[in-house]
Every structure is written in C-alpha cells, then in structure tokens.
C-alpha cells in the first residue's frame, strides 16, 4: 500500500536532514523494501533516499542496521585511507535518526531508514555485455576485499541459515513428509535429481567446518541491479546491504554467476533455451580476480566453482520446497510456477555440471592472470 505524503512527511521528520525537503516519489525497482527519493530544495544539499525495511523477511532490524553501520563505516574508512575522491558517492551513507539510532519505527510498527541519495547513476536488471559483467565482478570483488579485514564477529546473520544447504534440504524433507498440498507425487523426478547430489552440495559447509575455508563478510544479494554505475558504466557503489552477513566467498560468486551465465530467465519453461553464456562468465571472473587477488586463498579460488553449482541447486531446493508447501513464500503468477522455476534451475545445474571442467579452467586462468602466485598461497 502507498503511503500518503503527510504520512511520509511525519516519518521524515524523525531524521536529521539538512536543507528543505521537496517532492517525494517512489524510486528504483527493488522487490523487497519500499524506496522513496526525497528531493532537496536547498541548493548544495543532497537528495535523500527513504526506505521502509521489509520486516517480514528481516526479523531483527536492529541487528541488520548494526551490520550496515559497521560495513559502511569500514568501507568509508578504507576509501578515505586510499584517498579516493568523492567518497560520499562510493559507499552508502546512513542518515542518523533523532532517536540516536540509524532507523526509526512508525506508529504502525514499520521500520524506516534513510541514506544520502547517490546522484547521476544507473543500474541494470540484466547483464548484457562483457564490459558490464567485468564491472559486476569488480564491484562485488572489491566489496569483499575491502571487508576482508573487518572482524567477522562484528557482523550478525541478518537471515539465519540463509546459505545453509543442509537446513534447506531438511526443510524440503519436512515439506515432503507432510505434503500439505498433495503435490509430492508430481515431483519425483526432481527429488531424485536433488537426492543424488546431497552430499556433494554440502561440501562448502564441510570445508568451512574443517577450517579450510575462512568465514568472510559477504553481500549475499549479488544481483547486477545492486551495483550503481556511473555515466561511463563503471562501478560507483554497491548498494542493498540488508543481507550482508558472514559466509563464504563462493556464495556471492555463485549467486552472481547464476543469473549472468544463464541465457534464459530464472523461470524459463523451455529447457533448450537454458544455455551457458561463457564470455560473460569469463568477464565476471576477470573483474572479480582483479579486485580479490590480494586476499583470496588458493582453497577459496578452488571453492568458487562449487559455489557456481551450489547456488542454482539451492534455489531449486527452495522453489521445490515452496511448491510442495503450496506456494506460500514466493509470489507466483500461475499454478505450477514454482515447479517450472525448480525445473529451470535444475536444467542450469545440469549444464554447469556438463561444462564444469571448462569453467574451472577459466576460473584458474583468470585467477593466475591477475596473480601468478594466487594458487599456491594456501594457508
Ligand atoms: P532488492 O529487490 O534488490 O532486494 P531492495 O528492495 O532491497 O531491492 P534497494 O536495492 O536497496 O532495494 O534499492 C532499490 C533501488 O533504489 C535500487 O535498485 C536503486 O536503483 C535505488 N537506490 C537504492 N539506494 C540508493 C542510493 N543510496 N542512491 C541512489 N539510488 C539508490
Ligand atoms: Mg536491490
Ligand atoms: Mg534488497
């Protein structure tokens, strides 16, 4: 539901704004939060960006906002230390609320936060060129890199078990056990596909438990439209920090690749259309290693391909769970939409498996191009 201008005015009055607020209008194509741009009528002062935080998905708003504060402060310090120009437009800047926090709660129980609006940028929903893929790799690579020396214990899980494939599989098992929508019999083939790969898909978690993969601070929503580009289509700023949390670098890499490498939509019906776009994959990897070469371990480089296969598999498990549960989590446009999504992600996993050796060669090649000693620096 849209809020009236008076309602928004009263929310704005909780924040420490400079200048005189003018027009307020919805902006962006985000699916999770409600986002408004607030014009500033005083010249020399920035516009603002107001967001209502999706409290249904993010249960612990305080922890989430503490994460964002930690991360943006660290990024800002890094950029300043490097004497980068225009820092205020290269990292999100939270506007303090008058209650001493970085968010406020309205009379309806909604949570709100405010950022400085970053002007003269654009973002794209889909990666279409190698140049864009390269910039995407650079964006999320440098994000991980700059956060690699921030203490992971300062960051909490904004969504518990978000990347935990063991938990996701357990949820699927529970759904199948109760079979509330009577759909189990329709999905036997999909279950077989998933079951055959259970153990191998848990290998990143396993390597983490053995201490062979370090827990890092990752973005966890590495879609291309979460990167703001400048007028030359170069990375300017990584946005949408709600899901920043501890995790393994392969999760961010794999989730970015999941959409970039797929020639079709996430829910494509025609399996034949689901093919791999290898040039975009290479370009993303190239940009990624340019920025991460100094901190990634050899084991992490080797884990990236595992992440590339895991992320569409995990998405298939989540879509299938929702289908079996009767479509209660994801918005669907028709009956069977979640099953179609499941099948599309399964097809993508198959293609990735078929091309695994070639993709691995590209990863290794791009990694070595950026740092010839990268693959021997294991801890
Ligand atoms: P998603 O569906 O990706 O989770 P979301 O609902 O969490 O999105 P954001 O990605 O944070 O929302 O923001 C929505 C849109 O608003 C962005 O795609 C971008 O176009 C714009 N935007 C967000 N923050 C800023 C900013 N500080 N300056 C300028 N534009 C911004
Ligand atoms: Mg977003
Ligand atoms: Mg978001």
TrEMBL record:
Pfam families: APH (PF01636). Residues 28-272 form the Aminoglycoside phosphotransferase domain. It comes from the Bacteria. This is Desulfatase. InterPro entries: Aminoglycoside_PTrfase (IPR002575), Kinase-like_dom_sf (IPR011009), Pseudomonas-type_ThrB (IPR050249).
């Amino acid at each position: 539901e849209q809020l009236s201008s008076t309602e928004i005015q009263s929310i704005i009055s909780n924040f420490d704004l400079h200048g005189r607020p003018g027009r307020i209008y919805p902006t962006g194509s985000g699916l999770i939060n409600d986002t408004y741009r607030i014009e500033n009528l005083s010249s020399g002062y920035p516009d603002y960006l107001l967001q209502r935080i999706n409290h249904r998905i993010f249960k612990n708003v305080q922890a989430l906002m503490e994460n964002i504060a930690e991360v943006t402060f660290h990024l800002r310090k890094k950029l300043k230390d490097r004497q980068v120009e225009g820092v205020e437009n290269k990292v999100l800047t939270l506007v303090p609320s008058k209650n001493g926090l970085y968010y406020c709660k309205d009379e309806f129980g909604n949570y709100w936060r405010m950022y400085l609006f970053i002007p003269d940028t654009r973002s794209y929903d889909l990666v279409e060129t190698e140049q864009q893929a390269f910039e995407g790799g650079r964006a999320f690579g440098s994000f991980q890199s700059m956060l690699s020396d921030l203490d992971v214990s300062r960051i909490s899980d904004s969504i518990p078990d978000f990347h935990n494939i063991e938990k996701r599989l357990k949820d699927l098992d529970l759904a199948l056990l109760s079979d509330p929508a009577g759909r189990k019999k329709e999905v036997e083939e999909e279950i077989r596909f998933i079951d055959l790969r259970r153990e191998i898909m848990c290998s990143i978690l396993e390597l983490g438990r053995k201490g062979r993969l370090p827990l890092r601070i990752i973005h966890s929503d590495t879609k291309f439209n979460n990167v703001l580009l400048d007028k030359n289509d170069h990375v300017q700023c990584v946005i949408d920090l709600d899901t920043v949390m501890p995790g393994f670098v392969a999760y961010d890499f794999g989730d970015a690749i999941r959409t970039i490498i797929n020639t079709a939509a996430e829910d494509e019906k025609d399996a034949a259309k689901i093919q791999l776009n290898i040039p975009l994959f290479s370009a993303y990897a190239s940009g990624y290693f340019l920025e991460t070469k100094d901190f990634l371990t050899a084991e992490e480089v080797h884990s990236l391909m595992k992440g590339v296969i895991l992320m569409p598999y995990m998405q298939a498990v989540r879509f299938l769970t929702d289908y079996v549960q009767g479509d209660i989590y994801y918005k669907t446009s028709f009956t069977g939409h979640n099953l179609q999504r499941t099948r599309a992600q399964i097809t993508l996993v198959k293609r990735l498996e078929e091309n695994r050796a070639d993709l691995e060669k590209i990863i290794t090649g791009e990694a070595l191009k950026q740092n010839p000693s990268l693959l021997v620096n294991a801890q």
